[in-house]
Amino acid sequence: MFSAERRAIATLFAKYAGQGLRGAGLIAHVRDERSDATWQDLMCAAFLAVTRRDADQATVPIIYDVALLLRKAHNNET
């Protein structure tokens, strides 16, 4: 189950991706608003954002790419 915090972060990913942000810039904007979020929270929220029924299909590939970047960064840390 996803926490309210991760749902809120997923909403931010969708919002900023809809504004045209991508990659590291998208992550940076979300982190600016949710500086307390862990990398794990960000990664899970990004995957949540692309699996929502109401997801804007134009933003799904953008957010999915970010989710993969976050997963790769997380795997490199461990």
Concise description?
With 78 residues, the protein is mainly alpha-helical. It is built from four helices and no strands. Helix 1 (4-18) packs across helix 2 and helix 2 (23-33) crosses helix 4 (60-77).
Low-pLDDT parts are none
Question: What would the average pLDDT be, to the nearest integer?
Answer: 93
Major pleated sheet: none
The helix content is over 70%
The termini sit apart by: 24 Å
Strand content: under 5%
Number of strands: 0
C-alpha Rg (nearest Å): 11 Å
Class by helix and strand content?
A: mainly alpha
Q: What is the ordering of alpha helices and beta strands?
A: HHHH
Helices, by number, come to: 4
Tertiary shape: globular
Give an account of the 3D structure.
The chain is mostly helical and 78 residues long. Helices cover 73% and strands 0% of the residues. It is built from 4 helices and no strands. The protein is globular. The termini are far apart. The mean pLDDT is 93.
